[in-house]
Amino acid sequence: MSDTAGTEPILEITNLSISFFTRLREIPAVMDFSCTVLPGEAMGLVGESGCGKSTGALAVMRDLGVNGHIVGGSIRFKGRDLTNMGDADLRKLRGSEIAMIYQEPMASLNPAMKVGQQMMEVPIIHQDMPKTEARALARQLVADVRLPDPDRILDAYPHQLSGGQQQRIVIAMALMSKPALLILDEPTTALDVTVEAGIVELVRELGQKYGTSMLFISHNLGLVREVCDRITVMYSGEAVETGAINDVFNRMRHPYTQALFRAIPLPGANKNDRPLRAIPGNFPLPHERPPGCNFGPRCDYFVEGRCNATDIAMAPVSGDSRHDSRCLRFNEIDWAAPPPIEAKHDRGEIGEVVLRMDDVRKYYQVAASSLFSGGDTKVVKANETLSFDAREGETLAIVGESGCGKSTFAKVLMGLETATSGKIMLFDENVQSTPIEHRNTDTVSSLQMVFQNPFDTLNPSMSVGRQIIRALEIFRVGSSDSERRQRMLELLDLVKLPREFADRMPRQLSGGQKQRVGIARAFAGNAKVVVADEPVSALDVSVQAAVTELLMDIQRKNGTTLLFISHDLSIVRYLSDRVMVMYLGHVVELGTTDQVFNPPYHPYTEALLSAVPVADTRVEKERIVLEGDIPSAMNPPPGCPFQTRCRWKSKVPGNLCEIEVPPMRDLGDGHQAKCHLSDMILADMKPVFRIAAE
Q1: Torsion of CA 225, 400, 404, 419, to 10 degrees
Q2: Do 11-97+177-238 and 353-580 have matching folds?
Q3: Which of 187, 370, 525, 610 could tie 624 with a disulfide, CB 3.0–4.6 Å?
């Protein structure tokens, strides 16, 4: 962090209040929000969905829509008040001195224009730069964001680039006019963890190179730790704590900040000994905020008649620079006290094998020109020689980047696709070539799926109870309507939803509540094997903790086998018994969680672990940023599927990695890896993570 004492802030937000006006009422979205960003400083804004992070950022851009208005406070950029600035002056600032990068890169790119044209528009419009100079600048920025072959990229259309490449182009476009302030709104949420690591490294480097100040919005505390100098924690429209990263992470002084950290799986947490602690209660709606402290109803330290007696202002924390907290009691609380003891769980019994895959392959045939269905057909090898088993009561995590074959494997298992070859034994039945419409009811009910996006998996026109009862009818559970209704209410109890939710419509539920309904529906037929495809990635950290604990509780109660598909290795380490790592359709490593998360690693597993952002200042990790994207499954590289991106390839004599697919080797105690590296090199691998000495 640079020494910024006495310098003029780039951005100074003071007592900002923002409301949205509807026909019924005024909805206060942000209240009394203050935030200061100094030159060259990166400020992280964190908090649950709906806390006002993005609204505050859009207010800086003066882009709140027709019904959003700033009703109090000021926003000063380089000393100029943006709240009273006219449209013409704002247009000069936007894109030139203040730039914003949004969560979904394709929403920021014109699909009908080449990338180069779109990038050149920025300096041409804002600086009257000649086209040749603008093209040269665009080419330089494409190289700066580490994209290969800049000329080809500039002449490509957005759809010809991967998601990670598109996001790099959006970052390059934002930097074209060298803005003084860059606002990033969840810029890596939709990206793989390895791509995310590259983008984070890039953002940090470019911020230093161009001296750009940043406002980095995220719900991921680990990412904020890696990118930012300072952090502001928001809750229900207010800033509740702000300070330097180390001050807030190591000496937090607001109960909400503490609750956020207790809800995420830090190193050492596991599902049996140290369960995650979800924040109790629900986030208040903007027009239903409690008196006094907004966090009061969910706070472990709440005092009736004091915390809810009056509005609470930010107050400085003594001993730290620019560290403030919106808590009346922060000097009275013992912050070093351990969290309340949660009930420890006995390690669940792992039973017999219920699912076995032997040498399963899934190939797709596609036309060389899929647009016109002409030319020779090509083969897409989505899954190659998948072999593993899963046992009763076990959580097997399947991890890997987009395009590695995780979802294809899930579709084949569920019967939405049929395997090209191999054997899939579900209990005593081979379901390899049986599509779901030909599977019997018992097979369908015993193998269920929880999907990634809870918003897309519920029928918006059916009540919650009716959707669960419909599943019970299909699975032939219960002999009468009254029996099925009683079972539906028991399922709501199982997923810890109030029984009155049976009569609610999906639109009346939060994301976490919808995901619980999806889980209840999956267990309607007493599912024995559940495929959970990124079931918590769309949820806030506190809701993630609650849903994760719910899945673990149900598993302990029912002995369910859980196949947990994820790219979040923090949550995988917390809840899984075994881990299967996939790359380009291959299983490249398989073992217990401890085996996979400690050396020796497959080189790809090592890179995946290095990419995990960790919200713990004691943890040091080796940085391994993977260059390039996963090769196409239609045209895979010869030899080892990972050899085009492997940093260890030079350690293998000859060109073996480029010629021969490695065999699956047993590294001991059932730990397997598909790699040509010698036993000696594997044995000498160093841990990616280590805890720094206190």
Answers
A1: -150
A2: yes
A3: 610
Kindly report, residue by residue over 165-194, the tens digit of the pLDDT.
888 899 888 888 888 999 998 888 767 788
Residue 166 structure tokens = 């598109």
From 179, 181, 154, 184, select the one nearest 169 (Cα to Cα).
154
For the chain, the first-to-last Cα distance in angstroms comes to 21
pTM: 0.86
**559's tokens:** 């002995």
E strands, 198-246, are: 213-217, 230-235, 238-244
Q: Can you state the percent helix, strand and coil of the chain, rounding each to 5?
A: 35, 25, 45
Residue pair 240/325 in contact (Cβ under 8 Å)? The answer is: yes
Alpha carbon of 345 to those of 169, 265, 270, 273: distances in Å?
A: 48, 16, 10, 7
Helix H, strand E, coil C: the string for 24-92 is CCEEEEEEEEEEEECCCCEEEEECCCCCCHHHHHHHHCCCCCCCEEEEEEEEEECCEEHHHCCHHHHHH
Fold classified for 11-97+177-238: Rossmann fold (3.40.50)
How many CB atoms are closer than 10 A to CB 553? 16
Q: CA-to-CA distance for 199 and 171, rounded, in angstroms?
A: 9
Residues 622 and 610: their CA atoms lie apart, in Å, by 6
Count Cβ atoms within 10 A of the Cβ of residue 679 and give its class: 0-12 exposed, 13-18 middle, 19 or more buried. exposed
Among 192, 134, 262, residue whose Cα is nearest residue 613 = 192
Strands (E), 330-420: 353-369, 374-391, 395-399
Handedness of CA 635, 188, 395, 564 (dihedral sign): negative
Q: What is the DSSP string of 166-178?
A: HHHHHHHHHHTT-
Which residue in 552, 601, 611 sits closest to 272, CA to CA? 552
CA-based Rg of the chain, rounded to a whole angstrom?
26
Domain ranges of the chain: 11-97+177-238, 353-580, 596-691
Q: Is the pLDDT of residue 452 over 60?
A: yes
Q: If you count DSSP H runs as helices and E runs as strands, how many of each does the chain have, helices first?
A: 21, 26
pLDDT, tens digit, 9 for 90 and up, residues 575-622: 999 999 999 999 999 999 999 999 999 999 999 999 888 888 888 888
Rounded Cα–Cα distance for residues 278 and 692 (Å):
28
Give me the phi and psi of 336, to 5 degrees please: -85, -10
| Residue 624, token pair as written in the block | 């391994």
Q: Long-range pairs for 454-462 at CB < 8 Å and ≥24 separation? A: 454/511, 454/512, 454/514, 454/515, 454/517, 454/518, 454/538, 454/539, 455/511, 455/514, 455/538, 457/514, 457/518, 458/506, 458/514, 458/517, 458/518, 459/506, 460/505, 460/506, 460/507, 461/505, 462/505, 462/506
Give the 3-state secondary structure of residue 309. coil
